[in-house]
Design a protein that fits this description.
alpha+beta; four-stranded antiparallel sheet; 59 strands; elongated; tRNA binding; nucleus; Elongator complex protein 1
């Protein structure tokens, strides 16, 4: 599908300086200095040779000149010219036998040195340097081949004798030949395929020039020689052509098999698999000229016909450096042939300016599609680029039209209509000449073909794809009528009837704009000259302008400006510049801003000045996307925006998670994109085509269909390409909800609707799996219209329903209103696909089927069992008390009939209320079962069922339900309440139990419950209500006081001692124990017992002082030591993380190395010991951790052993606990300070306050440092291998210590 497009034609006029009228005889590329080395002479009139250097700027410098000696053939000839830029030396091989080395003049050598480094008396017939420039192979007039090294020392010399032909005994197995094909059981079909029908004798062609030619393989390991040998064949002496293959060491490896009509030309493909030559084959009464191929072993491989006239003279045969193009040099032109899918295409015929005959041609040694032609006193440099002759890529005309040049025919294939595999084509267009370029207009109905002398216009129609006729040339435009002096190189359609043509002139290029009318008559409407060469041009995606690239990478745009008429005016402007010259460009317009894309020869892809890729192999641009392939075998998509610096190019690593990037076959390139059919066509390296449907294009097509409310087309596209059907709703929820009825009617089939409903999820796929298929700007706009929390769409909408339930309810409403008879299955599906599933409604719907609808009932039962677990359905059917429905569902399950049939039969024997009670009990719905049991009143024997109710309530903890049922029957309700109180007491809910007993008037049990629960106020109040004896009250109060003291409820214990025990001493001790010194002092003075101040309060204050100061001292020491160790650990981790995470000893490493992640662990990508996953398990989610290992790791983490990986976490948690402890004791410290001050212990009070303030300040100075964790330490991998960050650790709040100002003077 690829064609050779000429992008440069540079004619250079040269002439000799040292002697007049010397003919141009050779040329060589100096790739280092980017210059040409040309050789002139000698001629019959002037025996003189001159070497010139032509620089890139056009400067000509004579390197050397000398007189040649006459030879027997009247005058000498240059056989080979080679230049060594590293040594500044040119080597000229002359037919007379001399090998001349010319050291060109430079700064160190003002004059050139000419030296004959070797001479062969018999003369030289051919010569060629090896590709590595280390060996020179020459053949002599004495029928020998000599290999010389770089210093021109002979390495080996071999005679070309007829005995060499005996080295190879060729046996062809007939691969690919007709005789190997199966032809039936006849004699012909049984013929031995290794014996051909006819064996060539090697008869020499009558047009053979008798020359010897040499060609090296691309790696320089072998060299082949094509020469004439005299052989004896059945007493008849015959001259035949033979190709000998020699190794680099001069060993004869093979000779070619005899071929009749073979000529002297030989060219070894640089890749090494083929040796090309020429054969003239008699074909009936005419002669056919073929290019034939040999393998290295001498066997003939295959051939192709050149389509040349039989008398056409071939001058040379050469492969380009990358083995992709074979050039055939003719007298007035060059043919360029390429192979694809084992078929040879004639891509170009390059004619030279004027009527001169070509003298030679040469490919550039590094640029694969650059060649130089020489004739008389002129040189022409031609450069080509691989290009697609393609049609519009904008709907609705995006039919994927591709045109392939093949000699005098143009192969046309609209890939959107018929994906015809090459070398076949959908239609062929016969032409007068080999096309230079072909173009098709934006409407796909006019084809313009640029040829050597004319532009041929053909009309075509693709409006009826089922009956597309052959295109026919209806008009020809002579190029001389457009630009008589220029050489046409390219043409492009701008729109339907406007055509742009590039003409090359000496030193400048010209673009001519033609407008075609309905009769294909042309008018020249615009002409623009450029002082530098035009490289290429490309129409804009909207077909209103064309982009033109100049040789200096400037981009000009020639646009058609609408002036209210159909014609419009032509405007030309400079719109920018690419970073370097690009061989292929494309132009798109996005929001009125033009963006030019360019692909350079080095694989760099640019968008204006922004580089997008460094390894691009092909690209294509549509109105919305850029698609390109890379050397890494990836296909990437980029959303187009009006700012190229905002282009988001997916990374190579995103191939498995990003819909904009996918793997393709190695070497595949894009040839067509058809947005309307959401397809793309790739061509593989061997030439075959492959159509793919990229997910991004598919989703774009789905979105277009949704916007047009064509839900059926959108659904079918999702179904065919396995796209999540949620996108039908998620792309535009409001549009979907407004058109639910249209959606249901569009899908038509029940199966389609079921498929959509059953696949619904509460996930917004446009924000998750298909996030990258929309440009970032559109995603941001959608985010602004959604209810979001932390960037994640909310599952529940403003109506309180989840997405799935909202859709199911809307569809159910339509189905029940208009499709209740035809879409029963879809209604059931909608019920069951709710979240949670509304199984009861579905079963009720099925249960309402009458006996006349047995088929529908069976179908519905089968469908519902397919959608839900049959065991769950069986239980739900029992819950509806429909035994018939339960039996039908049970038959669809794997249940044993011996189990469910007796169960159902037993239920049938009971009355309905008892049956419902048994069913609800079986299903675990005990509250409903209790209702049915209470409603039953009497059992089958006529006995009251209340005793059974009591047992049922106790066994299933249904006290509240029973009390609600019997709220109008006080006796039964109190009976239940008594059972409930007993239950509460047994479960240590003493307060509620006491209240229940108190309500029932059972004071003894109520008092016992209050005492057990330490509810001293209720218990002592109940003692007064029950009028208990004082002794008994004293016992109860003593017990309560002791329990309160043990529970550290010191103030409550003091109240009991003081008010009920009249024990002031114990009351004061309890208050002092709880640091309530102010209250202790108050009651002591109130009771006139000041002695207790010295006896109890003062010692308690001293004891409290000792406890608090000891606590603060311990906390200060702990904080200092742990903070120092924490800083040491973090410094070690920062300086040498690998050593830190290796750990001090092997015993700390768990069996599987991977340790459970903690809040302080580090990045999973670097330290697998701290991530929770190894490199493999982080991607697979696999884990080998057992419960035993987890428990062991938790123990290690809690222990925080010094030097282990858990030490840092242990230290941070320990400091957190220290802060909490200090905060908790602040109130006690404050009360202690106040008590010390009141008892005139000022020094102790000041000391406690100072220590508290100091401790709080120490904590505040380091709390941020301790609890701040870096992002790397917070990195984790989940089970799917996705990276996430742990939440930041909250910094504990350090409360200020409220100081006494009267003590704050130190």
């Amino acid at each position: 599908m690829w064609n050779l497009l000429p992008i440069q034609r540079s004619p250079i006029t040269v002439q000799s300086v040292s002697a007049p009228d010397l003919p141009l005889s050779g040329c060589f590329f100096d790739v280092v200095n980017d210059a040409l080395i040309c050789a002139f002479g000698p001629s019959r009139a002037v025996l003189h040779i001159e070497l010139q250097e032509i620089s890139k700027t056009g400067k000509i410098e004579v390197l050397a000149s000398w007189d040649s000696l006459p030879v027997a053939s009247d005058f000498d000839q240059i056989i080979d010219l080679h230049y060594f830029p590293d040594a500044s030396t040119a080597v000229v091989v002359l037919a007379g036998g001399d090998i001349v080395s010319v050291r060109v003049k430079d700064n160190d050598q003002p004059e050139g040195i000419i030296e004959i480094v070797g001479s062969i008396d018999e003369g030289i017939t051919s010569a060629a340097w090896s590709p590595d420039e280390e060996i020179l192979a020459v053949t002599t007039g004495a029928q020998t081949i000599i290999l010389l090294n770089r210093q021109f020392d002979p390495l080996v010399e071999r005679k070309l004798v007829a005995d060499d032909l005996k080295i190879s005994r060729h046996v062809s197995v007939g691969w690919g030949k007709k005789e190997t094909q199966f032809e039936g059981k006849g004699v012909k079909g049984m013929r031995d395929p290794t014996i051909p029908e006819r064996v060539d004798d090697g008869v020499r062609s009558t047009a053979d020039d008798g020359k010897v030619r040499i060609s090296w393989r691309g790696d320089g390991a072998f060299v082949c020689v094509n020469s004439v040998d005299a052989v004896d064949l059945e007493s008849l002496q015959l001259l035949r052509r033979t190709i000998r293959v020699y190794s680099r060491e001069g060993v004869l490896e093979s000779v070619s098999e005899p071929v009749d009509g073979q000529e002297s030309f030989v060219s070894w493909r640089p890749s090494g698999n083929l040796i090309a030559s020429v054969q003239r084959v008699p074909d009936g009464g005419e002669c056919r000229v073929d290019v034939i191929f040999f393998e290295r072993n001498g066997l003939r491989r295959h051939e192709f016909t050149t389509r040349l006239p039989p008398d056409e003279c071939i001058l040379d045969l050469q492969w380009n450096v990358e083995s992709s193009v074979l050039a055939i040099l003719l007298s007035n032109r060059i043919q360029l042939w390429t192979m694809s899918n084992y078929y040879w295409y004639l891509k170009q015929e390059v004619y030279v300016c004027g009527e001169d005959e070509l003298a030679f041609m040469k490919w550039h040694p590094e640029r694969p599609l650059t060649m130089i032609l020489g004739h008389e006193n002129k040189l022409e440099i031609h450069e080509f680029a691989w290009n697609l002759f393609s049609g519009s890529k904008s709907p609705p005309n995006d039919l994927g039209v591709l045109m392939v040049a093949n000699g005098s025919e143009l192969k046309i294939t609209p890939l959107g209509i018929a994906n015809t595999p090459p070398p076949m084509s959908f239609r062929d267009l016969a032409l007068s000449e080999t096309p230079i370029q072909a173009a098709i207009n934006s409407a796909n109905d006019i084809i313009a073909v640029l040829e050597h002398s004319m532009i041929e216009l053909a009309e075509w129609s693709l409006l009826t794809p089922s009956s597309v006729k052959l295109p026919k040339v209806t008009k020809s435009i002579a190029l001389a009528s457009i630009d008589p002096a220029g050489a046409a190189r390219q043409l492009r359609f701008i729109n339907r009837q406007t055509l742009a043509v590039i003409f090359d002139h000496q030193g400048y290029s010209r673009i001519v704009i033609l407008r075609l009318d309905s009769e294909l008559q042309h008018d020249i409407i615009y002409v623009e000259d450029f002082d530098i060469s035009v490289v290429t041009m490309a129409p804009r995606t909207d077909h209103r302008a064309i982009g033109v690239e100049l040789a200096n990478a400037d981009i000009r745009q020639i646009s058609i400006v609408s002036n209210g008429s159909d014609i419009g005016e032509i405007a030309s402007e400079n719109i920018g510049r690419l970073p370097e010259r690009c061989l292929t460009i494309a132009e798109a317009i996005v929001k009125d801003r033009v963006i030019v894309f360019g692909l350079a020869s080095n694989g760099r892809l640019y968008a204006n000045q922004q580089r997008l890729s460094v390894s691009c192999t092909s690209f294509i641009v549509t109105e919305n996307h850029l698609a390109f392939t890379t050397a890494q075998s990836l296909l990437k998509f980029v959303h187009l925006t009006d700012n190229e610096f905002e282009f988001e190019v997916p990374a190579d690593s995103a191939v498995s998670v990003d819909e904009r990037c996918r793997s393709i076959e190695r070497g595949a390139r894009i040839v067509a994109i058809i947005p309307s059919k959401v397809s793309m066509v790739l061509q593989m390296p061997r030439g075959n085509l492959e159509t793919i449907f990229p997910r991004l294009l598919v989703l774009e097509g789905v979105r277009r269909s949704i916007d047009k409310k064509d839900y059926l087309q959108a659904f079918l596209a999702c179904r065919a390409h396995r796209v999540n059907l949620d996108i039908l709703y998620d792309y535009n929820p409001d549009l979907f909800m407004r058109n639910v009825e249209l959606f249901v009617s569009s899908l038509r089939k029940v199966e389609y609707l079921d498929l959509f409903i059953s696949g619904l999820t509460n996930e917004d796929v446009t924000r998750t799996i298909y996030k990258e298929t929309l440009p970032s700007a559109l995603i941001s706009n959608k985010l602004s219209s959604l209810s979001l929390e932390d960037g994640v769409p909310a599952e529940v909408g403003s109506d309180g329903k989840s997405k799935v339930n909202r859709i199911c309810d809307a569809i159910l409403e339509i189905l029940q209103k208009s499709y209740s008879k035809t879409h029963i299955q879809s209604i059931i599906t909608a019920y069951l696909c709710k979240d949670p599933a509304d199984i009861e409604s579905a079963l009720i719907l099925i249960a309402n089927f009458g006996h006349d609808n047995q088929d529908e009932l069976a179908s519905a039962i089968e469908h519902i069992c397919f959608l839900q677990d049959v065991n769950k359905l069986y239980d739900y059917a029992l819950g509806l008390y429909d035994l018939r429905l339960a039996l039908l569902i049970a038959r669809q399950s794997q249940k044993d009939p011996r189990e469910y049939l007796p169960f159902i039969d037993n239920l049938q024997k009971h009355v309905p209320l008892r049956r419902r009670f048994l069913l609800d009990t079986h299903l675990g719905r005990y509250d409903k079962a209790l209702v049915h049991l209470c409603d039953l009143k009497y059992d089958e024997q006529g006995n009251d069922v209340f005793s059974e109710v009591e047992k049922y309530v106790v066994s299933h903890n249904l006290y509240k339900n029973a009390m609600k049922i019997y709220k109008y029957e006080p006796i039964k309700q109190y009976a239940i309440l008594k059972l409930f109180a007993k239950h509460l007491k047994s479960h240590n809910e003493f307060k509620e139990a006491g209240l229940a007993y108190e309500l029932l008037g059972d004071y003894a049990d109520a008092l016992d419950s209050y005492v057990l629960g330490s509810h001293w106020r209720e218990a002592l109040a109940l003692c007064s209500m029950a009028r208990l004896p004082r002794d008994e009250v004293q016992v109860i109060s003593q017990k309560l006081a002791e329990v309160l003291y043990e529970s550290r409820m010191y103030k409550d214990a003091a109240t009991v001692y003081l008010e009920y025990r009249r024990d002031l001493k114990e009351a004061v001790r309890c208050l002092c124990k709880g640091y309530f010194y102010d209250e202790a002092i108050r009651i002591v003075l109130q009771q006139n017992s000041s002695d207790y101040l010295e006896e109890i309060v003062n010692p308690a204050l001293i004891e409290g002082f000792n406890q608090i100061t000891e606590l603060l001292s311990d906390c200060r020491g702990q904080l200092s030591a742990q903070l120092e160790r924490l800083r040491e650990l973090r410094l070690k981790k920062s300086n040498d993380p690998m050593s830190y995470f290796e750990g001090p000893e092997e015993s700390d490493v768990p069996d599987n190395v991977s340790i459970a992640p903690s809040e302080l662990s580090t990045s999973a990508s670097l330290f697998t010991r701290y991530t929770g996953k190894t490199g493999g398990t982080a991607q697979t989610g696999a884990t080998r951790r057992t419960a035993k290992n987890r428990r062991r790791e938790e123990r290690k983490r809690a222990r925080g052993k010094k030097g282990s990986i858990y030490e840092e976490e242990y230290l941070v948690n320990s400091i957190r606990r220290l802060i909490e402890r200090v905060n908790e004791t602040k109130d006690d410290g404050r009360r202690l300070i106040e008590g010390l001050s009141r008892r005139e212990m000022h020094e102790r009070a000041v000391e406690v306050q100072r220590r508290y303030v100091e401790m709080v300040n120490n904590i505040k100075s380091c709390v941020v440092e301790v609890f701040t964790i870096s992002d790397r330490d917070r990195q984790r991998y989940d089970d799917d291998g996705n990276l996430y960050l742990l939440p930041e650790q909250p910094i504990p709040k350090v409360e200020e210590f409220e100081k006494l100002s009267i003590l704050d003077y130190n």
